[in-house]
Structure formats: C-alpha cells, structure tokens
Amino acid sequence: MFENLYIHIPFCRKKCDYCAFFSVTDYSQCDKVLTKIIEDIRKQCELNGKKFDTLYLGGGTPTLLSEKQLEYLFANLDDILTLKNLSEISIEANPETLTKGKIAILSNYVNRLSMGVQSFNADLRKILGRDCSNQAISQAIDLIHNSSIKNFNIDLIYAIPSQTAADFIADINEVKKAGATHLSCYNLTIEEQTALAAKEISIDEDNSCELYQIAVNNGYFKQYEVSNYAINEQYQCRHNKNIWRGGTLLGIGPAASSFDGKNRFTQSYSIDNYLHDKAIDYDIISKIERRNEIFAVNLRTCAGWTRSDFESIYPDAFDFYLAKIRESAKIYPDFFDYDSNHITLTSQGLLFWDEVASELL
Ligand code: SF4
Questions:
Q1: Which of 3, 73, 125, 329 places its Cα 20 to 30 Å from the Cα of 93?
Q2: pLDDT at 1
Q3: Which of 23, 91, 157, 193 to mutate to test the pocket of ligand 1 (most atoms within 8 A of CB)?
C-alpha cells in the first residue's frame, strides 16, 4: 500500500538557529526510539506489505547515532525490508558526526547520502547558528570519497544576511569541487519559534532572487525542482520525485507524516507521546483538495505535468488546470510554459511558486 518509507531520527547535537524541524538535543531516549521505530515498521509491514521503492532517513541528524545504533537500525531494516530490493536508500548526514566506522556501516546499506553543509563560509554558518568547522566538512568529504557511496548531495542555504553573490558562487564551486552529484539550495526562511525569528532579522528579497538565479545558471548542476539540482537525471532524488507526484509515504518516528493515497497522518512532536502511540494527528483531505495539492506540488519540478502523466492519476482533470493556467498567465505571463499537452513553470515561475499555487487553488 505504501510505496515510500521515511524514518525520522529526532536527535541533534545542537539546534541550528534557523531550524523548525522536530529534533531534540537530549538523546537519553534514543535507544527506546530506535526500538519503537523498528517495531512500528514490522507492524506496518505485516498490515500493509513491504513493497517499498525508496527509503529516506532524515531528521534530526541520523548520523548522530553511534556505530552500534546505526548497525542495529540497518540490520533490522534489512531483515524486515531486504534493502537490496529498494531502488534508493538515502540518509541525511552532518559533517561533524561522520566517522570512518559510520561510513563503513552506511556503505553496506545506503546508496545515497545527503550532507547538510549550508555554507562553506564559517562566518555565514555562524549567522545560521550552524555548529560545524571547516575541518569537519573537508574530513567528511574525504570519508565519502573513500567510500563506495558515489551518489551524494550537499545542502546549501542562500540569502543569508550579508551573503554576497561572490560568496554564493564560491559555495557552489566548493560543492562541485567536493564531487557531489546533487545540490540542494534552500532559500533561508525565518520560521516561527526559531532562534533566528527571535533575533528579528529579515531576508533581503532582491538578494534572494539574485542568488536563486546564480543557482539556476550554475552551468554544472541542472535544476529539476525549485530547490534541487543534479549533474544528470540519474542522480535526481527518486524518493522526493515520487512524493512530489503524489506517491504514498509511510512516515515512521516522532513528527513523521504519512500519506496513504487519501489522507495524511502525523506522529506526535513529542518523544514521550511517540513512544506511547499518543497524539497522532489525522488530516482528512477531500478528494479535490488532494488533487489540487498533487497538481501544485509537482509544478515545483521543472518537468511539471504532461497531460498523460496527470491523467494517469486523475483522468479528464488536465483541462480543468489548463484553463486555470491560461487565466493566471494573463496576470503573470512570464511564469508559465504550457500547451494543450504540458504545463510547467519557468524558472521565474518556480521562484514565485507560492503565489502561483495560491492563484491556482
Ligand atoms: S538543521 Fe539539521 S542539524 Fe540543524 S537542528 Fe535542524 S535537523 Fe538538526
């Protein structure tokens, strides 16, 4: 029933100032959470089968787990899911937590690694409250190079206060130099209840647009989604692409969300509640809301929708959206590229996806 599996490891060494993901810095319940994650996956597989296409371990910081904990987690996942049958197994990593021993374990199980760097410039990382040294970043890159994991992503953040075009070009060049096959560039946003929000800093929108265009025109990584770039199609993240096109998702772990093809449910944002199966949030979505959402989310990709792809999910619905796009294009002529068989957003349209989505829905 579920095609994609997400596991949330909700522990971090220190909370970054911009981060609104659920994670805690007290790891005292880490072993209990891992045991519960494995129990939950076993239960779900008994109920719903285990034909997953992708597995993504995010957080939090999955590579914060000790070697023993990583081995426990992956050995059990392999036992339940037979990992070699999955197309893609990704794990998020933070440079300062990677060791030779952990990379050796991961090499046995994962085929994609996504490393959060955010900026190679220590001063900019400091503004983000990102606790990591240049030395840890270069050591982590060396460890990855010396491993069998050849598909690896680096995350960057742009529009950091005081960041110049030259700073961002230097960051992208470092990602190329590192031999990454994939680049994710996220526009800094100030999320409520983060340390950055408390500092009352603001984002320079003009700077943000300029740096976005630098990423789009970088000439090495090809954009395939508003924030995602790969050296070629083979290295695009399969897990995310499946989700953007409305694929089903089983989310395991605190704060993890699932989508069963009809509705969404999210585990509690509390370790204790998660351990006791409490406070799960069920989000009942109408058929039309779900169709709108799937249409809009995949418009964030450069491929957008073809008539045949969309109608394979929603027969006869393509013309409904085509008519809406024609209307929106009268207001925003530079945002759309469409004809009777395809709809995509231009790179400028992608940048203003929020406005496009609210106009469409
Ligand atoms: S950005 Fe990543 S490492 Fe930093 S607090 Fe959030 S989840 Fe943890």
A1: 3
A2: 83
A3: 23
Cα 103 to ligand 1 centroid, rounded to whole Å = 20
Output phi, psi for 122, to 5 deg: -60, -35
Task: Kindly report the CATH number that applies to the domain delimited by 286-361.
Answer: 1.10.10.920
Give the Cα separation of 294 and 161 in Å (integer). Answer: 33
Domain coordinates in residue numbering, the chain: 4-243, 286-361
Question: Distance, CA 125 to ligand 1 centroid (Å)?
Answer: 12
Among 12, 115, 18, which Cα is nearest to 59's?
12
Return the ∠ at Cα 57 (arms to 9 and 230), rounded to 5°: 140
Task: Look at phi and psi of residue 170 and say left if phi exceeds 0, alpha if psi is from -120 to 50, else beta.
Answer: alpha
Q: pLDDT tens-digit profile of 152-193?
A: 999 999 999 999 999 999 999 999 999 999 999 999 999 998
Quick check: 283 pLDDT over 80? Answer: yes
Ligand 1 pocket check for 23: Cβ under 6 Å = yes
Residue 168, classed as helix, strand or coil, is helix
Beta carbons within 8 Å of 208's beta carbon, 6+ residues apart:
158, 159, 187, 188
Q: Are 17 and 129 in contact (CB under 8 A)?
A: yes
- Distance in Å, CA 14 to ligand 1 centroid: 8
Instruction: Work out the average pLDDT over 336-353.
Output: 94
CATH topology of domain 4-243: TIM Barrel (3.20.20)
- Which atom of ligand 1 lies nearest, measured to the CA of 12? 8
pLDDT of residue 129: 96
pLDDT tier at 200, thresholds 50, 70, 90: confident
Tell me the whole-structure pTM to 2 decimals.
Answer: 0.96
Task: Answer yes or no: is the C-beta of 59 below 6 A from any ligand 1 atom.
Answer: yes
User: Rounded to the nearest whole angstrom, what is the distance from the C-alpha of residue 118 to the centroid of ligand 1?
Assistant: 11
